[in-house]
Design brief:
Distance between the termini: 113 Å
CATH architecture of the largest domain: Orthogonal Bundle
Structural class: alpha+beta
Largest sheet: 6 strands, mixed
Strand order of the largest sheet: 10-12-13-11-14-15
CATH class of the largest domain: Mainly Alpha
Number of domains: 4
Shape: elongated
Helix content: 40-55%
CATH topology of the largest domain: Hypothetical protein af1432
Number of helices: 23
Amino acid sequence: MTSSTRHDGNDTRAERLAEAVQVLAGERDIDRMCGLALDAAMDLAGAAAGHVATADGTGGLETRVAKGEPGEGPGAEEPVTVAGERVGVIVLWGADDAARPAVRVLATQLSQGFANVEMERRAAQQRGRARRFAEAVRALRGVQPTEQAVLCLVDEARKLVAGAASALVTGLPGDPGPAVSLGLDPDSERLLAGIVAGELSSLVVHGRPWAGPVPNDVPLREQGLVGLALVPVGDETDRIGTLAVLTRDPVGVTLDELEALWSLADHATAALGAAALRERLDELGTVDPATRFFNARYFTTRLEQETHRALRSREGLSLAVFGIDGLTQLRATAGDRAAEDAVSALAEHMVPRLRATDVGCRTAVDELAVILPGSDGLDAYRISERIRAGFAAEAALTHGVSLSVGVANFPSQAGTADQLAGFARTALTLARRHGGERTFLYDREVAAMLDEEDRRGRVVEESLVTTISTLAVAVDERHHTTRDHSQNVARVAAMLASELGMDPERVEEVRLAGLLHDVGKIGVSEELLTRGGPLEPHEWDEIRQHPEIGYRMLSGTRLRNVREFVRHHHERWDGGGYPTGLSGEEIPLESRVIAVANALDSMVNDRPYRMALPFEDALELIVQKAGGQFCPVAVEALQRLAERDPAWLRPEPNA
């Protein structure tokens, strides 16, 4: 071969190399890139066979594309590296050694192509994460603190990093508190809370996030949950809890994703407030803070699980529902703290008298339930009666309350978890109908008679309440300035009750009491109610009788709570009100709420004896009287509602 021929061959190879490099530079698909690089390398080196292998994610290489039949022995290799790390290799058999530099150029260009694809992938991930982060922050800001704040945070954290499950865990090291989770069953939720507040608590003790594998001995791994990210929520001096995200990737999450979760937690505490998050944790967690029993949310799920387990094992299952009688009266006379102390004392009394397999739950403000696996109805009856009688004998525990208990069995009586709960509560109702302080076992025939009696009672009660409500409207209609007064008071009182975290049933009682609060004025002369001038002391005495009159009018119904709220809606926080001169927390909270709503509507509407005040002035006056005439807690709730949207509170103008 002449020198001229040799130069022509090299020139041709250089042209082909330049063309191959240009094509590779414009490609962004890894598979096509590898195929083009192999074709060019085999062509330039005259190789009979070859392949391109790439990293498999475990430290090894896997063949990405191959051509021809490999010869005997190892082929000539040219590594493909990115940032000093080997990410692939070009292997050729039968290659011309003189073409080695050209193959090296192809490997270098392939390395650059890999790097470009990885950069674009990371950029796309960052853009997607930034978009999801912005969406998460918007979602958090759109949630009112008293609504779904914690669930929103947990859900957005999981979506932000495409996790399999997530939770917000509270508590101290060794003492996990309530946890709110998505993607976990109750048992897994408790397990996660235990390890986060236990063996893993030191990982975020200094306020820094952490990501890594779930410990090998934790059963969560059996569900494929092998990676974990932990992010502190709140600062070191005001820690709310730990945000935990579980993944199916053993790494947990990347550093960038961990930073995004940390930022999300910061936004949550800033947007929603630490106090609001704690409020929702108490409400949404699985543990009731007063009793350390499970709460109603957990009860529903666990009872369903236990009925399925009972069917599989062919064992009985019983449910005992403990109604705490007299708790409402205790709350009204001694305050919320005394009522919660009574419930806590009952729970402490019950714990040593239950078996290890029994599950205690607080299912309502005045109700505890115990799930009794492997027990028939008579066993459950004996356990329940022993608890009830023992509690009654311990005067130091009772705080003036007593117990009525209803027991039902599955599957001999009930066919589903819902039926079991319903039948146990029917038995509880029957126990109360027979004077209380006793335990009743569900009986189908007795329950049928009770249902019919209930139906007749409801018809009579609805008729009576309708009549009384009509009388309340008639009172408002006596003067054009009080038209719609009761409806306005009912609406605002219900909003205040909801703002204070009362459950829906209690809020409805407040609304009804607000509607009926002035019904007793039907017994006050119209001349006194509509007079424009001052009243004599004896005339004031007549007007001040209307709460007692309303109380007596409602005594013919089952609205025992409502009539108490109506009776005390003119009491004052400082004890200067009427009819009984109660003060502070002796006054039912519901009555304190109605008092604020009543005052607001009276101030912003004309009355025979004065002109209406502007809404802002009325609000300021009520705030000034907090701690004197009005309950401070109820006034604070009013202020919060007014700050969010005063239009909610402005009563409809009297027509």
